């Protein structure tokens, strides 16, 4: 099958895309011109890999808090659920504000996922000496598997948080939103992309309702008439946000840390006594799901996420959100199809049933709808 590119897409015109797609909505409002969106070719033969990661989910939200182990100050920064990439700079900022001491020069960071790397970078920017201790480095971290869309989704359970946490959540989101904007461009693999919200009913509260503090992060929001877009969905809206090419981004961030003099030591921790024995007197705990057993946090649990990665399609430079299992992120390393959010599931083995479900639900977004 010939792969479409932006160049060939422009040359062949919209008719080629309409042919490649299984169909278009059966009806649209009077005078509404249909916008043809390059379709994703959802075919089992195009599956490049299937990946599974365990998100560190806490119903009460992320934890940024100081704990003393004898003379060692531990600054916890973990439990981001589905928002680890999005909130990484924000909670790193909160943690560094909590743990920074102008009389201390040497700091330790536990964990080399995106939260640990972001925390280390902010410390280095303040002139600190930083050593990262981690049992796994990129590409073996959970962060490498993350989809990478900027939006703090599935971070907490609404009934389990109070107004103080919500305010902290917004503050972390704001700092991260601004920081990622400074990194947009090819060097870090961060790009602005359109996100289409597809649904069976109007989703006016997605990604955040007007009047909500989170609505300040909703950029270029618009709603579409039925049939205005070439998706198989009765309702559609869109907003713009950033997309982080996580495998690439993590490599560059780790490079920057090393260039600034940061050290990385491969080391795991079996108990808090080993943490207290570190030579640094201030330690930032960014161990994600591992913080549960290490620091006795019974409130953290895995949220198993399985993704199906299709071969890349250069012309697919948008994302899809449905509010169900199906979602799609167009990345240069492949088309990311999601996905699952299975709380309490520790399995890292890909499930054939989950793969079939992900392919079927995403394929349906591009198939010919039933006639009205």
Automatic annotation (TrEMBL):
| Entry keyword set | FAD, Flavoprotein, Oxidoreductase, Signal
The record's annotation in PROSITE patterns points to: DAO, PROKAR_LIPOPROTEIN
Tell me the first and last residues of the signal peptide: 1-22
Q: What is its EC number?
A: 1.4.3.3
GO cellular component terms, alphabetically, are: cytoplasm
Q: Quote the InterPro entries the UniProt record gives.
A: D-amino_acid_oxidase_CS (IPR006181), DAO (IPR023209), FAD-dep_OxRdtase (IPR006076)
Q: Which one of the record's GO molecular function terms can you name?
A: FAD binding
Known Pfam families for this protein? DAO
Q: Which cofactor does it need?
A: FAD
* Enzyme kind, highest EC tier: oxidoreductase
Q: Which reaction does this chain catalyze?
A: a D-alpha-amino acid + O2 + H2O = a 2-oxocarboxylate + H2O2 + NH4(+)
Highest rank taxon of the organism:
Bacteria
> What are the recorded Gene Ontology BP terms?
D-amino acid catabolic process
Location of the FAD dependent oxidoreductase domain: 41-97, 106-367
Extract the SUPFAM superfamilies matched here.
Nucleotide-binding domain (SSF51971)
Q: What residue ranges carry the coiled-coil annotation?
A: none
Which PANTHER family does the entry link to?
D-AMINO ACID OXIDASE, D-ASPARTATE OXIDASE
Q: Which family does it belong to?
A: Belongs to the DAMOX/DASOX family.
Protein name, per record: D-amino-acid oxidase
What organism does the UniProt record list as the source? Hyphomonas chukchiensis
Q: List the top taxonomic levels of the source.
A: Bacteria, Pseudomonadati, Pseudomonadota, Alphaproteobacteria, Hyphomonadales
């Amino acid at each position: 099958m010939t792969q479409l590119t932006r160049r060939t897409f422009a040359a062949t015109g919209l008719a080629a895309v309409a042919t490649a797609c299984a169909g278009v909505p059966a009806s649209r409002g009077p005078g509404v011109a249909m916008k043809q969106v390059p379709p994703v070719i959802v075919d089992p033969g195009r599956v490049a890999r299937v990946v599974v990661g365990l998100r560190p989910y806490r119903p009460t939200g992320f934890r940024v808090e100081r704990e003393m182990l004898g003379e060692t100050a531990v600054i916890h920064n973990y439990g981001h659920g589905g928002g680890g990439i999005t909130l990484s700079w924000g909670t790193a900022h909160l943690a560094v504000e909590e743990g920074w001491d102008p009389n201390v020069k040497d700091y330790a960071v536990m964990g080399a996922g995106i939260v640990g790397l972001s925390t280390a970078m902010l410390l280095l920017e303040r002139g600190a000496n930083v050593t990262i201790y981690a049992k796994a480095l990129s590409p073996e971290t959970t962060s490498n598997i993350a989809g990478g869309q900027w939006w703090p989704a599935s971070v907490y359970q609404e009934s389990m948080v109070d107004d103080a946490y919500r305010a902290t959540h917004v503050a972390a989101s704001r700092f991260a939103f601004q920081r990622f904007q400074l990194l947009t461009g090819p060097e870090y693999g961060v790009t602005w992309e359109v996100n289409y919200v597809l649904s069976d009913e109007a989703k006016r509260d997605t990604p955040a309702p007007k009047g909500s503090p989170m609505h300040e992060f909703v950029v270029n929001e618009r709603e579409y008439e039925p049939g205005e877009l070439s998706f198989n969905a009765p309702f559609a809206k869109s907003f713009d946000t950033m997309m982080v090419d996580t495998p690439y981004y993590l490599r560059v961030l780790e490079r920057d840390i090393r260039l600034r003099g940061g050290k990385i030591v491969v080391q795991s921790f079996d108990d808090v006594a080993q943490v207290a024995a570190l030579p640094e007197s201030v330690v930032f705990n960014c161990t994600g799901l591992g913080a549960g057993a290490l620091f006795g946090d019974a409130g953290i649990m895995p949220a198993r996420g399985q993704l199906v990665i299709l071969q890349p399609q250069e012309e697919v430079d948008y994302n899809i959100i449905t509010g169900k299992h199906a979602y799609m992120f167009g990345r240069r390393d492949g088309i990311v199809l999601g996905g699952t959010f299975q709380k309490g599931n520790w399995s890292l083995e890909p499930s054939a049933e989950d793969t079939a479900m992900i392919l079927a639900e995403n394929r349906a977004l591009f198939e010919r709808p039933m006639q009205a």
